[in-house]
Automatic annotation (TrEMBL):
Domain STAS, chain residue ranges per copy: 463-572
GO terms for cellular component: membrane
Annotated compartments: Membrane
Name this polypeptide is given: STAS domain-containing protein
Source superkingdom: Bacteria
Chain segments annotated as transmembrane: 38-58, 64-80, 87-105, 111-129, 136-157, 177-205, 212-229, 267-287, 299-322, 342-373, 393-423, 474-494
């Protein structure tokens, strides 16, 4: 007998939640790998340094909070996560949510919401729900990412142009743009020149020297010009008083039931977006390296990282696609590179924090303008718009709800709309069609002694001959996913097919699945046919489909079950012949 195929075993809890750091160390970790990870970690730290401060400032927090997030959150994500290459820290996608949370509840409320989101992320990972994040449609992710990019860009216009507003800058886009337009007469030419120069230098270095740290070079040159020429522009020192030379002491925020309920919507939004962003980043890293991440382990690590960041006064942490991709391209071999990136950022805080005060906010706004432009995935948007109207509808709904309503609402509506469109598409794929042989044999051919004639006389006629020779027999084939979306259509067809025949064969070999609604619909149609004294035969149904029919009330003897179509047709013809001679 042939050897049986080994069955795949489900992964154990240890396999699901063992950090990739542990896996890497078990493989063997030597000086060569440490050297490669150190170079990659330094490269990522150089990229993360200006980004972390810029994202925090755009979110309404301090630049020190951004660096704290990158250090504490980034270290924990790499040390505990399920990806070898993931880099954690503050992300541009969170700017909108974080800024809104600070506006409503203050920095204390943001820290509490971040801590709660960490608990939610740990629960999502612990309940193994991370695998479901992959079911978010691509037009939804492109739509909310593009929407966030537009919002980030609009949030930087004030610092890009050096505008002076009459009052606080409005948050909603529809209110922000008129306020900024009214402030255009206050445009600062030096600020505009600095921001434009920063953007231009980043783009030039990206094109002609892609391996150079363009973000850091542009920011350092802008800071040098500002300090050397004593330019009259806003800097980190003038607006925030600089950044602290080290991490703050950990502390719990004020916790009460009332405050937790107040920030609950923001905490859920942080957790939802954090799960999506971090797992998308891990998938990107997998595609670049051929490795596979552990989704639920990664979410647990993201939860711990958000709790850690909140305790040290930081903001939301997630996996960052750009920094993770930089980590891979820089030659990282393990999560040690991400841990070292956090260590290098901490060393910067300890050694060079006073120098950060000279960084002009126009330069950081230029950095974020480039980030926002990159978030507008123009190729992906063009592909969606050309592909189908349905995908365009999902993208457009998500994009405009992100701009003018709320990010969480945009994602939920986008997913619901994408799911409804998918159900409609799947329902259209289900087919109920009558089997019709191309050419039927006439009686003379059947009695001529040919192979098919001998089969017919022995009661072994092939399917085509059996159907063609008997007008009382009809065969229908079902194909596709038979589920609630297609049940009504299939049921209406089945109700009509036995009107002019005495035997009905249903070929289920092409049915991939059947849900409860479909099973009940099928049983109802079979019983209506049986009430007209039609003999029923079921061919090619899988054990799962037969089990579903039995579970929902189909009794033994109500329908005859056959392993394949030919067997079913022969049995149906035999029953018809017996009925005619009796």
């Amino acid at each position: 007998m042939p050897a049986s195929t080994p069955r795949a075993t489900a992964p154990t809890l240890a396999e699901l939640y063992t950090p990739k750091l542990v896996t890497t160390l078990r493989e063997g970790y030597g000086p060569a790998r440490l050297r490669a990870d150190a170079i990659a970690g330094l490269t990522v730290a150089i990229v993360a340094l200006p980004l972390s401060m810029a994202i925090a400032i755009a979110s309404g927090a301090t630049p020190g909070a951004g660096l704290t997030t990158a250090i504490v959150g980034g270290f924990l994500v790499s040390a505990l996560g399920g990806s070898r290459y993931q880099i954690g820290g503050p992300a541009g996608a969170f700017i909108v949510l974080v800024a809104a949370c600070i506006a409503r509840h203050g920095m204390e409320g943001l820290i509490l919401a971040t801590l709660m989101s960490g608990v939610f992320l740990m629960l999502i990972g612990g309940l193994r729900l991370g695998t479901y994040i992959k079911y978010i449609p691509h037009p939804v992710t492109v739509g909310f990412t593009a929407g966030i990019g537009v919002i980030i860009l609009s949030s930087q216009l004030k610092d890009l142009f050096g505008l002076t507003l009459a009052g606080p800058e409005p948050g909603p886009l529809a209110e922000k743009l008129p306020a900024l337009a009214a402030a255009l007469p206050s445009l600062n030419g030096i600020t505009l020149a600095l921001s434009a120069g920063t953007i231009g230098l980043i783009l030039l270095l990206r094109r002609y020297r892609p391996h150079w740290p363009g973000l850091l070079i542009a920011v350092v040159l802008a800071a040098g010009l500002t300090a050397g020429l004593d330019l009259p522009v806003d800097t980190i020192a003038s607006r925030f008083g600089g950044i602290p030379a080290g991490l703050p002491a950990p502390a719990l925020p004020d916790v009460s039931v009332a405050k937790m309920l107040a920030v609950l919507p923001e905490a859920i939004g942080f957790a939802l977006l954090g799960a999506i962003e971090s797992l998308l980043s891990a998938v990107v890293a997998d595609g670049m390296t051929g490795r596979r991440h552990r989704a639920n382990c990664e979410l647990v690590a993201q939860g711990v990282a958000n709790i850690g960041s909140a305790l040290f006064g930081g903001i939301c942490v997630t996996g960052t696609i750009a920094r993770t991709a930089t980590n891979v391209r820089a030659g990282a071999t393990s999560p040690v590179s991400g841990m070292l990136h956090a260590v290098f950022l901490l060393l910067f805080l300890l050694v060079a924090a006073p120098l950060a005060g000279y960084i002009p906010l126009a330069a950081l706004a230029g950095v974020l303008a480039v980030v926002a432009w990159n978030m507008l995935e123009r190729h992906a948007i063009g592909t969606i718009l050309r592909h189908s109207r349905a995908d365009t509808l999902v993208f457009g709904a998500t994009f405009f709800l992100t701009l003018f309503r709320d990010l969480t609402e945009a994602i939920l509506v986008g997913v619901a709309l994408g799911g409804a469109i998918f159900i409609d598409r799947m329902a259209r794929l289900v087919q109920v069609e009558q089997h019709k042989p191309f050419v039927g044999e006439d009686a003379a051919d059947r009695l001529s002694g040919s192979d098919s004639g001998l089969q017919y006389l022995r009661g072994e006629a092939p399917f085509a001959a059996g159907v063609a020779s008997d007008p009382d027999l009809v065969v229908y084939r079902l194909s596709g996913a038979f589920f609630f979306g297609s049940a009504a259509t299939v049921g209406a067809v089945l109700d009509r097919i036995a009107d002019r025949h005495r035997a009905l064969v249903l070929d289920f070999s092409g049915v991939a699945l059947m849900d409860s609604t479909a099973a009940l619909t099928m049983i109802g149609a079979l019983r209506k046919a049986s009430g007209r004294n039609v003999t029923l035969h079921l061919a090619g149904a899988s054990p799962a489909i037969r089990g579903a029919l039995a579970t929902h009330g189909l009794k033994d003897g109500e329908v005859q079950v056959h392993p394949d179509l030919d067997t079913a047709v022969r049995a149906a013809r035999l029953a018809l012949d017996q009925a005619r001679t009796s």
